[in-house]
């Protein structure tokens, strides 16, 4: 993220350009992560705070860089994922899928 302007609230288009995320992704994440709660104007326009932008960037890091699932990112944001055993869930799921397939193959022979 570049330099964040010194202002209290940011429109969704500004957050989109600051974070490099499309506005539809930001709206989706609002529904998935309770930590992102932008204020609404009387006309219903979303107004994000700096705290929201920091949270969005952390979620982006967890999902895109660390390869967590949405559930794994929720746990990490909630402080439940302090140990590496819970992360990343996608790897654990992938390996479990391999084990299940190997069991099926073994049952066939």
From TrEMBL:
Annotated ranges, domain HTH merR-type: 9-79
* Entries under InterPro entries matching the protein: DNA-bd_dom_put_sf, MerR-type_HTH_dom, MerR_fam
The organism's superkingdom is given as: Bacteria
Q: Which GO terms describe its molecular function?
A: DNA binding; DNA-binding transcription factor activity
The UniProt entry, under SUPFAM superfamilies, shows:
Putative DNA-binding domain
Coiled-coil positions are none
Keywords, alphabetical:
DNA-binding
SMART domains attached to this UniProt entry: HTH_MERR
This protein is called what? Answer: Merr-type hth domain
**What organism does this protein naturally occur in?**
Desulfoluna butyratoxydans
Q: What is the lineage of its organism?
A: Bacteria, Pseudomonadati, Thermodesulfobacteriota, Desulfobacteria, Desulfobacterales
């Amino acid at each position: 993220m570049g330099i964040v302007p010194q202002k209290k609230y940011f429109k969704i288009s500004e957050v989109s350009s600051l974070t490099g995320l499309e506005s539809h992704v930001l709206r989706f994440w609002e529904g998935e992560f309770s930590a992102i709660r932008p204020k609404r104007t009387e006309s219903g326009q979303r107004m994000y705070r700096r705290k929201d932008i920091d949270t969005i960037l952390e979620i982006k890091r967890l999902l895109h860089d660390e390869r967590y699932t949405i559930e794994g990112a929720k746990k990490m944001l909630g402080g439940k994922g302090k140990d590496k055993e819970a992360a990343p869930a996608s790897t654990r799921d992938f390996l479990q899928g391999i084990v299940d397939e190997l069991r099926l193959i073994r049952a066939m022979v």
